[in-house]
């Protein structure tokens, strides 16, 4: 997502762009595959603000800005009310996105006082939101000229951002004096951990406020792309090609070629070909994978230390199912398992049923499901993907995911027609990711040093190893910022004009 966002935007800016994708399908964590008429995905399933309606985008999602510039649409279906089901150890029920209806959920769970606290918390977040989102992602670039595209272009907005109390506060600060109920506090903390992998007392408030502002406003609604997350990927690829860019598949990069002045001068592919880059090389691989592609002497100790300091988040156990839906009540799109024993830094256990809202995901009368839970890499280290020991561990570790699924559809085993189980090794292999990790756990704590995105002259990094981290909007932002940094200020200014920002 980061690399394609960057590439599509660079092609729109008029650069000659080649994307080298190591896998046969573009999209990384957003790619899909089909089997027996079912469409399976890697997990990305929560979307908002993708549809820019053919006019100036009001969306806070940076992907919408890129789609608008490259003039590509992603068809979406609105996710109907009550398509989210929260599953607690004792009970489960449907909930809604949008603050009013969610207030009723809070009342049911923790009582009237908690509901009033939730509303006060919402109000506080709402008051902070204009300042927190005053700087538009498209205005960001990684050089001093960022002062021109942010402060120079919209001094009022920048001042608003500076004055906003959320800028220097951690998210839990927003709860002080508003949320006293321990259940509600834990729940908010859980949402924060699930959204960005950090507890609420370690995450900058402005980052989370934007997420809350987007998801819990009275008018908030989720949407789902027709064709799944691949539809976003395909739109970016169309935009790339339309503007003269190229996409090479099965083009795994083994090494970044470093020129005589210590600059990134191209890439060497696994098949031995070398491709030169006159302007820049952009890596969308994780920081650990990028480091492996660089000759040791070319990289500063500072960058090496930074990567060494990064703590990889867990990977996942995945269960993908195609199953018979006869006789089932309408299923929700998401089940979130709010069992404190299962929730980790890497998010809450999730069951997603895309066919509940988007019928092309499964044959008529059938459903497709992806259930996953965070899983450490360590037990899998060194195992052969087809070996006996691997098979035994896979069988053992997927039971907890099966238990989750049986909790919501008790006779699921009788309904299954297609079944695939994924492990951290699957995730690492098919997504080309170090240890199959979700991304760095401590990224937001590490600050945004220039070496993080530009470890050597001419080499830029984007994707979820760079700020602001994981999630399709965040990865796309990082790609957008690299693209903006590679063009002169007047072209960047032109893009902001074209978007009406
Ligand atoms: C289970 C799960 C659930 C998720 N849910 C959501 C969600 O609901 N909403 C949301 O917005 N986000 C979600 N995400 C996160 C989101 O999908 C990712 O953060 C985002 O897609 C990552 O994009 P990226 O560009 O950083 O990296 P990737 O998607 O990993 O892309 C990197 C690309 O680089 C390629 N590559 C790597 N190394 C090389 C090499 N050496 N040579 C050539 N190519 C190479 C890879 O093949 C891959 O295509 C979820 C992720 C997971 C795993």
Description:
By secondary structure, the protein is α+β, with helices and mostly antiparallel strands. 37% of the residues lie in helices and 17% in strands. It contains 18 helices and 18 strands. The protein has helices at residues 2-13, 62-70, 99-110, 112-132, 146-152, 155-163, 182-196, 205-215, 230-242, 287-292, 301-309, 388-397, 399-408, 412-415, 424-431, 450-453, 472-485, 489-499; strands at residues 18-20, 32-35, 38-41, 76-78, 84-87, 92-95, 223-225, 246-248, 253-258, 264-269, 274-276, 281-283, 315-324, 334-337, 350-352, 366-375, 416-422, 459-461. The strands form six sheets. The chain has a seven-stranded mixed sheet. The protein has a three-stranded antiparallel sheet with strand order 9-10-11, with no helix packed on it. α1 (2-13) runs parallel beside α9 (230-242). The radius of gyration is 22 Å and the shape is globular. The mean pLDDT is 89. Flavin-adenine dinucleotide binds at residues 1-3, 20-23, 28-30, 42-46, 252-253, 284-285, 289, 316, 372, 431-433, 438, 463-464, 470-473, 475. Residues 1-3, 20-23, 28-30, 42-46, 252-253, 284-285, 289, 316, 372, 431-433, 438, 463-464, 470-473, 475 line the site of flavin-adenine dinucleotide.
Condensed summary:
The protein has helices at residues 2-13, 62-70, 99-110, 112-132, 146-152, 155-163, 182-196, 205-215, 230-242, 287-292, 301-309, 388-397, 399-408, 412-415, 424-431, 450-453, 472-485, 489-499, and strands at residues 18-20, 32-35, 38-41, 76-78, 84-87, 92-95, 223-225, 246-248, 253-258, 264-269, 274-276, 281-283, 315-324, 334-337, 350-352, 366-375, 416-422, 459-461. The chain is an alpha+beta fold and 501 residues long.
